Structure formats: structure tokens, C-alpha cells
Amino acid sequence: MAEIILLATVPFAALIFFSRSRVLNNTLLILYSAGFLYGAFAAKTGPGMLSPYIEIDGLGKLFLCIMSCVFFAAMLYNFSYPPKERESEQSHARYSAAVVIFAGSMAAFIMSAHLALAWVFIEATTLASTYLIYYSGTKNSLEASWKYIFICSIGISLAFIGIVFLSLATGKEGTLFYSDMRQNAAVIDGFWLKIAFVFILTGFGTKAGLAPVHAWLPDAHSEAPSPVSAMLSGALLNTAMLGIMRVFKIMKLAGYESFASALILVMGFFSLIVAAVFVSRVKNYKRMMAYSSIENMGIMAIGAATGGLGAIAALIHAFSHSFLKSAFFMTAGNMLKIYHTGVTAKTGGLLRKNPLLGWLFLILFAALSAVPPSPSFLSEYLIVAEMLKKGGLYAAGAAVFLLLIAFVVYGMAKTVFFIAYGKDESPEENVKLPFMLYAPVILLLAAAIGAALIMPQFLTDIFKNAIDCM
Question: Is 456 helix (H, G, I), strand (E, B) or coil?
Fold first, then answer.
């Protein structure tokens, strides 16, 4: 079913592109994302109709399910949230078609069984999302889109070089199918494999928003329309991280786990440092959320590199961050409708202006800050516990310290509480918004917290299958 949805991406995008009805296009986007959601959860792992190039393994199914949930919620939100004011029907059609191509490209990357094919699809996500980032047509969005395509294209080019080196490392066979590389990992040339991993980690790390190759992320996430920001943070970053995990698996099987994990840990801790330093200095609340995404991707990287329970925690954190941060960006979109600005200093008193939105904003912040029963608490606890178990006392202490700085002591808390409780010059209170702008936020928040409290059996099975592929 997921493969059928994938094959329908281009025809569906073409149908939307030539449509000139905004309501019809928004409805088609919801229907497409709903089909995507059903296909992801109904998909069976193993070879399919597009095998051997397109297959779904346990790890891919987990990431596909997460991505499809974020996509569906974003399209529900998109129905009542015009990307820009006074847009033409033609402009909205181009926007909607680009969203379909963007989602389809991410899904194709996740389901790719061949590394070179995956590279093609990750580059397709760049082309589709560049237009979406620029869509508002402002000077800042133009700058953000140019920075995004420039930095990400360089990163993906480095990943391509890494793929070439990996092809050399595989020797006479020269196969880049993940299954073949895992099976033949013991005979892969170690010299070329290690060089290849450095390039691939840098390339995919660029798309994942890992420091120091993260520079595109704060601008792109803050300037994109809020439904797109939700997809960028909740779906695209995970997708790129999956690419790193797949190649990291090959490194482990080849006997170079310590080499690869050291590099990933460096990028993970550097991401925490960048977030801790900059999250409190930014003056735009959407930009603050973007730096929080960098920090969360750093947590995922540290968990994956730590291994053991840390690797399991990385998957839990991928789920938690995608749901909670997507919802957080949607609340930011609602705040833009209320305050008509992204500048933090021009906000304040959100609980007075819109109590429901204000409480959702505070609860989401608490959940992202790993306050129980948030799944982020479980993932971060498991990562720290595994680091301590393996003798990494100083590393665990540094991680906890940076997280406290980024979220509580010096970082997001100051901005969040100012927005919720601070004084606002505007006398307007009880601002009403359409319920559809709250519904996706509530759904994502409830799903994340509900899964942490009582994980249903089908979700447990998805996680178990994903863990087996780590």
C-alpha cells in the first residue's frame, strides 16, 4: 500500500498543480496524507512490488509511520492556515504540489534499499522544500531559501563523494544495496569505508541539522510557512538521520563502531553546545524552536552512537521530537495569527489573549523539556543511564548540563514564560481562532503523551522491529 501511495505522488502532484481551487487542493492534500498514513501503518516489511530498489524494513517502517503522522497533522493544520495572505489560486496550487513532492521524496528516501537511490531522493527533498521555504516571498525568506539550497546542496554533494568512496570500498561487487553491504561488511575495505563514512556523515548530517553543518536550519524553519516548518522539523530531520543510522550499521558490522560513534558523538555534543549558546539569544520565537530542533537531533545522535539502550532511546526520541516539535511549530503559526509578528519582544500575555493556545504552548514546552510523562523524559533518561553504564560519567554530566542550560536555566524557559505571562501593549484579549488550528496540535500532543503512558501493542511491535534493525 505504501508503494502505491509512493507511485501516486507525481500524478497527484500534477492533479493539484493544474487545479485552481484552493479548497479542492487543501482537501486533496488531506486525502493524500490520510492515504499516506494508512499505507505506512498497513505496510508489511520485506520485498514489495518495487523490490529490490524500494523495500521497507523495520527501521524504515518506524520512520515512515512517524513521517506520515506529521504529514497528516500538518495537512489538517494547513486546511485553515493559508501559507500567505492574499495568495492567488495558481500560487496555492504550486505550493500544494510542492508539498506532495516533498512528502513523497522523504517517503521514497525512507523506503530506498539502495544508498545511491536514497541520495537521489534526499536531493529531491531539497529542491521541493526550497520553494516552500521561499513561499512567503519576503526578503528574509529569500535569504533563507538561498542559504538552505546552497548549504544543503554542498552537504549532499559531500554525501555523494562518500557514496563513491563506499562503492570503492565494496570492491569487485560494487553493490550499494544496504542488505548486500551489511552481509559483506566484513570484507569491505576499511580504509575507503572510514573515509566514506566521514563524507556521508557530513552530508546527511547537514540535512539532519547537526552542528557544525546546521547553519541553514534556523533561517529555513523560522521563515517557512508553519505547516512546512512542522514537516521540516518533524519529518525531514528524522529522514536524514535515518540515512546516518543505516550507514552506521554497516560501520558496526565492519568492526569500526568506535571510529564511527566517536564522530557522531562529536557532532551530537556540538549540536547541544550550539543550542545552549544560541537558543536564548534569538529574538524570534520560531527561530528559537529551530535551535531546539538542532539540540534534539544532537540528542538522537548521542543516543545512536552510545548504543545499547541509547540506540533504543534514539528511536523513542525521534518519535517524541517529531510529534511534539511539529505541534510546537503549529502553535507558533497560531501565535503569528494573533500577534502578526515573530518577534518575541512584541508578544506577551498569550494566556490572556487565547487561554487554550497558551496552555498548549506551555504544555508542549514542558513535554519538550522532558517533564514526565513526556516520552522525551524516557528517551533522555535512557541515554544518560546507558552513558553512565558504559563509564561515561563526564559525558553524561556534560549532556545533562547542556540540556538544562538550553531548556531551563538560560534558554527556552525565559522566552516561553515571557510569551505566556509577559505584559502585552495590545488591549485585545480572547482572540478567537478556527478549531482546526488547534485540532492537529491536540492530536499530536495526545498521541505523544498517550504512547508514553500506555503504548498500544501495534506500536510496540513497530518499535521492536525497528530495534532489531539497529
Answer: coil
**456-469 per-position pLDDT tens digit:** 898 999 999 999 88
Query: Residue 30 is part of which domain span?
Result: 2-468
Largest CA distance in the chain: 73
The Cα 349–Cα 289 span in angstroms is: 19
How far apart CA 376 and CA 367 sit, in angstroms, is 7
Q: Are strands 55-56 and 46-47 parallel, antiparallel or unpaired?
A: antiparallel
Q: What is the CA radius of gyration of the chain?
A: 21
Shortest CA distance to 118 belongs to which of 260, 263, 244?
Answer: 244
User: What pTM does this model have?
Assistant: 0.94
- What does the DSSP assignment read for 13-60? HHHHHT---HHHHHHHHHHHHHHHHHHHHHPPSEE-TTTTTBEE-HHH
Q: Which residues touch 168 (CB under 8 Å, ≥6 apart)?
A: 189, 192, 196
| pLDDT tens-place string over residues 11-27 | 889 999 888 788 888 89
Could you tell me the sign of the dihedral formed by the alpha carbons of 111, 116, 122, 127, in that order? negative
| Of residues 467, 317, 305, 297, the one with CA closest to residue 381 | 317
Q: Which run of H or of E encompasses 130?
A: helix 115-134
DSSP, residue by residue, 141-210: HHHHHHHHHHHHHHHHHHHHHHHHHHHHHTTTS---BHHHHHHTGGGS-HHHHHHHHHHHHHHHHHHHT-
Which residues, 6 or more positions from 402, have their beta carbon under 8 angstroms from its beta carbon? Answer: 269, 272, 273, 275, 276
For residue range 22-70, what is the model confidence (pLDDT) as tens digits? 888 889 999 999 999 999 999 888 887 788 889 999 999 999 999 999 9
Structural domain total, the chain? 1
Q: List, as one string, the DSSP characters of 205-230.
A: HHHHT-TTS-THHHHHHHHS-HHHHH
